[in-house]
Amino acid sequence: QTRTITGTVTAKEDGLPIPGVNILVKGSSLGAQTDASGKYSIALPEGSKMLTFSFIGYYTKEVTVGSTSTVNISLEMNSKQLGEVVVVGYGIQKRQEFTGSAATVKGDLFKEMPVQSFGQGLTGKATGVSIVQPNGLLNNPPVIRIRGVNSISLSSFPLVVVDGIPISTSDLSVNSSTNNPLGDINPSDIETVDILKDAASTSIYGSRAAAGVLIITTKKGKQGSVKVNYDGWYGVNNAVRLPEVLNAQQYIDHKNAALARALVLNANAVPAAQRDANGKSFFPAFNADGSLIDTKWYDQIYRTAYSQNHNVNVSGGTDKTTYFLSAGFTDQDGFLKSNEFNRKTGRVTLSHKVTDWLKLSTGLSYANSYNASPNSGSSPGSSATSSSAFNSSGLGRIAVAMAPNVAPYNADGSYSVSNNTIGKGNNLVPITWSNPLVLIDKDKNSSESNRFIGNLAGEFNILKGLTFKTSYSLDRASIENIQFWNPLNGDGYAYSGRAYNNTANRNNWNWVNTLQYLFALDGKHNFNILVGSEAQKTRIENWGAAREGIADPFFDQFQGTYSSNVSAGNDINQRMLEGYFSSVSYNYAGKYFVSANLRRDGSSALASNNRWGNFGGASLGWTLSEEDFYKNSSLSKVMSSARLKASWGKVGNANISNDYGSYTTYAAGNYGGNYTWAFNQAGNNELKWETSNQTNIGFDLGFMNDRVTLEANYYYNNVSNLILGVPQSPSKGIPDNKILLNVGSMYNKGFEFGINAVPVRTAKFSWTANLNVTLNKNEVTALVDDNTPITQATGNLETSSITKVGYPVSSIYAVKTAGVNPENGRRIFINKAGEKVQYLHHGGANAWTYLDGTKANPVNSNDAQILGGTLPTWYGGFNNTFQYGNFDLGVNFTFSGGNYIYNGSRAGLLDQRQWNNSVDVLNAWSTPGQNAEIPLAIYGDNVSNGSSFPIDANVEKGDFLRLQNAVLGYRIPQNVFGKIGINSLRVYAQVSNAFILTKYSGADPEISTNGNDQLAAGVERNTIPQGRSFTFGLNLGF
Amino acid sequence: CKEDFLEAKPELNLPADQAFDTPARILLQVNGLYSSAKNGSLFGGRYMIYNDIRGEEFVNNRANGVTGYSVWQQTQTADDNYITNIWSQGYLTINRVNQFLEGLEANSSKIEATLATNYKGEAKFIRALTYFSLVQVFAKPYQLDQGASKGLPLRLKAETTTANNALKRSSVAEIYAQILKDLDEAETELPDNYGTDAERRTTRAHKNSARALKTRVYLAKGDYAKVITEANKIVPATAPFVSPIGVSNALNPSVTTTYTSYTTLESIFSFPMAVTNVPGTQNQLGYYFNTGGGANLEYFLNKSSNGIWGNAQFRASDDRRTKLIGGTAASPCLIKYSNVSPFLDYTPMIRYAEVLLNLAEAEAEVGDQVRARALLDAVHKRSDPTYDFGTLDKDALIISILTERRIELLGEGFRANDAVRRLQPIKSLGAGADIPPSDARYNFAIPALEVRTNSAIND
Predict the structure, then answer these.
(1) Exposed, middle or buried by CB within 10 Å (0-12, 13-18, 19+), for A31?
(2) Which fold is adopted by the domain A3-78?
(3) Would you state the pLDDT for residue A852?
(4) What is the CATH number of the domain that holds B408?
(5) How far is B318 from chain A (nearest CA, A)?
(6) Closest residue on chain A to B9 (Cα)
(7) Do the chains contact at B16 and A862, CB–CB below 8 Å?
């Protein structure tokens, strides 16, 4: 006789009901699941007595049913297994059924970090994921690379999906402040970040997923009483690792000595008008009180910055309705003066079960993000290939290069200026740089985003296991970019003042429909079948104007009075995507897993004939430890779980920055007062998908009852039909000297290891540790035609990067040198023929000579060689959490290496024009026979130290170990609060970027002057450094 | 699948297949060719500025690599970005011309035959001007070996695909031949004038523009007889010197208004500027040479004896000194380009004064010394009426004419090219030395970017 057993399953830890628990009648195929309120009902056949309750993340429990018809069960959390559920494309999968490769990072850590976007908090947390913060400018978009760089010309930034919505990630700032769209997401609202790495996981996203997918799941309400949480922190931040530069007296002495040497060679090395009778041009200047002017420009440009962050959320729910509301406010100041970020966010998610066949859910979020920054020379720039590194108003460079013997103010308190530069003080040569205080005080650059992300989804349970889901989402951002350049000094000088306002409206909508059928046959054959469609459209309309020639310096805004108005920043771009997909997953008794998916995608950015592409993947898994023979083996005593998995997939990539790359076009303009059309783009009407074939083989092992788990993967990602802006010889006159073509191929291959362990677990003390290591090798295997290499310049000026067959993408390309000639102090260069050629600035026709003094051909970048890859070949994190009583301590290290960095900033620090120098020049060659690293200083020399073209002396290894952050927390015992309503209170102190061990001499080995540009990675050029911050915070729960 | 949902056409750029749809659009393309040539990295500024600062007339004031410091010092390398831009923008202009000529041929039915002919002439004029300007700075001078040296890749076909990256350099003589072929054809194809439209007469080529440019090209070749032939078309045998044909080009009575009115009959061809169409940051002639009000005095005049500022022929009473030079006593500066911020001064590309001096030089070399002297006087005495050159023998006459060019054409992009065409050393102030023709620095190296992408460039 069959009887019905009912009951509720709750979690032992908090007593809350657990929905979705699998209940099986032991020895049969009969099963059931708990509903949203943890309730279940199951028919128990006669003769059966045992029920099995299992749920991901909890210990499975077997219960013998007595005569009662109500069985309430509490399950104990299995805490050693983190991330039991993987959020995959268009759904959720249990970790144990998932056969692809993914990493899950809990969102809790983001809310405590002094970051602007969650991306910065991911560093070192996820196996296979490399995150680099390009510099210390607030809200600079991080460079995220999943398993290496997965394209050459197209974006290698992963697809970011928030609660199922693929969101826009392009920076739409048009001035020197950044606008990182990831910063519009309040890090405190994030529950988890799942990072999909292999094609079997990502190919369901088809064409947008070649660089991996970041799936963000925001916090949702849970059934139960209302919970209120407050999280807040206060932080202080300072610049670190600033290079030591000459003080005023050292500067004067060094420059005059260099000048004396120059004048011997060239009587006009400095024009007669700019030196005294003794051939000196640099002189001390004095303050009104008679003290020497010795300006510490770092103190003028950088500061100790303070930041604060507050979040409140309220959540709860009934068996039908759950909700989560949050409000966040952050106000952060950067260590670069005038650099600010603040954000106000509000978020509501609501889920309601209307009937037993219809569930509606909605999420609405609004963010107001305000970014402001002076020209730091460190923002990624408006196009991928043009960083602002060489902007003459870039404060990162002015901070080191400005002469220390001039002052920012005149004696009367006014700014010291002379035309477009700072006043030269008592020097006779003019100083090239603008007065940085004028730039900080009077220029304005801001990018303010008002962003609304909303979605509405309906879920229809048509039959048992058959669900139709439709979801429409809108990601709409309105971004106001404001730039004011003062007429006194800096970028606005030549315009007599300029105001440039631009508004960008980005409207991105997405509509997804899926039909999913979950069913089991005989209790052992489990199927999950999904079909779906997706359509997406993103349209960006920019409009703006510049006003030039200010009526009076009284004005500092666009609305003032100006002499001329010109069009600026007007653009319209749009892109559409349409896709159809299906996936099938099957497993047999939780032992054998097979899944496959297919997707057909069309993109408007490709040529009309080649617009559609087919993508897909398949994976296999075998949970060895579920086999009886394994369970009976002695191995199972040591290795408690074992699983093998393999996947293969093909994904596409059409993330071309140009929406209209297939068109040959003419651009409109002006010729005097007349209009023009002129050929501006050579299109390619054959443009098609980039495709990557990805293979992943791995295993997951658990030891000592899963107290130690090891995940290891081998991956091989072969990218072909690479879309490249193929370099055209400039004499052909192709606009930008580039045409987009599908040529070339490359691969990334490597190993990933992740170890999670609980080395110590006692009642009072525990230590959990995670070590993740990724080894990656990247190589370009084919390029266009005769394999013409692709070179890329930093800031359109300095070509130090090359992409060539047989080498990793974006290798360093510089001229080899052979040190300094001990005889005469000249830099010895090695030309293409391998000959040693020495250089003497102001040497005229004999500037370039062989070591025997005979004339040689000038060395230039055509003599450059490939000197190393810029992509780390190993990287990872070592994360530790210690708990002792109410104390918790997190210590998180990151490490990376095997790469080289082109330290262009050092070329500037040793440049022998009137720029200030590193104190290292005090050790420059001075006497015959001396072995020196730095050549004899000759005034005006911009060749010997690498300013004119890159040299190997400024190429350095990038290996490092960093204490990324350390946090110490204390949970105040609950009994302290009595009945005042406080449930929990934790206070903590945190240090970020605590220290770094590296031989790299520049600002930071994790630097990317060219931002996300994968063709010119690993370059440091005039970029502001990283900061170190201390944060104090609290988490309060009611 | 709905194809229309995935159709995203550029909304602000014109697909190439519609570029020749209407006569109005074709005219806008003609304007586009001029506009391409007047880009700030070419004739909008840099090309002219670099020619002036390579010589002895200017002192660098800012030591800024972005504003020509290394060019002034003659330490530029093949990597110099701005020199590369001169090359790239020049060839972009040439390709636009090539494409336009091919498109016009294919769409000849769309416009009137006369207009089509005129437009062809304009395109060829621009191509000739560009090739001539490039060959002067990126190759050895014609007169060194009668053009036998390697010149430039000669590109005459429209390039829109990835084919043809490799192309070796044609000889200097071959480049000159093409320039003169274009100019001869342009002379027949261009309109005589543009009626009373002074703006178009100045900023669009007409027959006299081609003739005037030919005098410059032949002068560079050292073909003085041809200079005289071409110049005679637009310069009468004796004063008053007013072109008898086409536009009545003549010296403007006042030298200064040439630089303020922009469209006087003296300006045979200039590139216009407008608020919507300025040369761009750090490219403007005025920004380099003028001071204050947005100009930055990047270069002031060299007061030492070898500079033209100190030359006896350039007297204190000369209008060109009193009205076109300002600044301070310590650092006098050229204020020819006075419309600063916004920088609206036209680039004076070809002035009648230059034609007179071209002709004077040719006459002095191989022809009528009296006429040469009359032409020299016409130019000099406009600005300094009481000046007397005295008696000049042939050599002294030639020297005076060359000196006059330095005074009259100061800051207009002639100095280095004038030295080079006559195989004189470039008297580089920044290098503190004379740069002889045998020196690698005598001309700019082929940009490294071209060397990397054009495998035949050194064949």
Answers:
(1) middle
(2) Immunoglobulin-like (2.60.40)
(3) 95
(4) 1.25.40.390
(5) 25
(6) A660
(7) no
